[in-house]
């Protein structure tokens, strides 16, 4: 059973439906919401609720911080400082930021950070990894929910014979190796950040000039994915807008993390300023086709 301001059961509605319900319930309240697994990995009932910053769980105990939802995603330094002060173990989900946004282990105290070969590292999907303090990893012995995803056992196997316990995705690892070489060649984290930042600047400026409004101000906008509010225009129907862009070879993200009707445009991946300008040209063309004037 999961708790997120409301209680619901998993079995009666199926796993997929229950997960979607959990996400909807939690994200509708953003920073105010709390949830927890009723049974821990040890089989014992969990006590207090967890605190979530948007869609990121950072604690197994309750810590109340009064911040607006849009701010809760941003201040990793503040969250890390609080976790250290409260002697809380901090696990950072950096899946969509690792490799492009700086994360200095000398300044930000955390126990583990998770990421994957794709996203900002620009490899292909298929392998995830965790950078974790050895002392914390040692505490994970016999405490995993999964046989194949047991980090402690995998670590022990690597230390013993440098082998994966199960068949590794060799083609994904080969692509990841090449992606890391290209990441270094581009200038590492800051080199990639600068390209994504320029991509973000072009998209934000161009969409604003067309009359679209962004959800976040500049000081909170990371150069990863940009959320725009769906315009209040009688001819704007998201599905038609989405399908028209798709037919031209461009896919955008439907908004799913906000209570407002939004859509999102990504600016990461092997994309350049040329690609961003092409996106803007296609959006302009689509608005014209749908007879939508926002200015």
Shape: elongated
Q: Structural class, judged by helices and strands?
A: alpha+beta
| CATH homologous superfamily annotation of the largest domain | Type I PLP-dependent aspartate aminotransferase-like (Major domain)
Q: Number of helix segments?
A: 9
How would the blueprint of this fold be written?
Layout: E1 2-3, E2 7-8, H1 15-29, E3 51-53, E4 56-59, H2 69-72, H3 76-85, E5 91-93, E6 112-116, E7 128-132, H4 134-138, H5 151-161, H6 170-186, H7 188-210, E8 213-214, E9 225-229, H8 238-247, E10 253-254, E11 262-266, H9 273-289
Parallel strand pairs: 5-6
Antiparallel strand pairs: 1-2, 3-4, 6-7, 8-9, 9-11, 10-11
3D structure, described in words:
The chain is of the alpha+beta class. It has 3 domains: 66 residues, no CATH class; 113 residues, Aspartate Aminotransferase, domain 2 (3-Layer(aba) Sandwich), CATH 3.40.640; 102 residues, Alpha-Beta Complex (Aspartate Aminotransferase, domain 1). The protein is 38% helix and 13% strand. It has 9 helices and 11 strands. The strands form 4 sheets. Strands 8-9-11-10 form a 4-stranded antiparallel beta sheet, covered by helices on one side. A hairpin with a 3-residue loop joins strand 1 and strand 2. Helix 6 packs across helix 7 and helix 7 packs parallel to helix 9. The longest helix has 23 residues. The N and C termini lie far apart (49 Å). The N terminus is likely disordered.
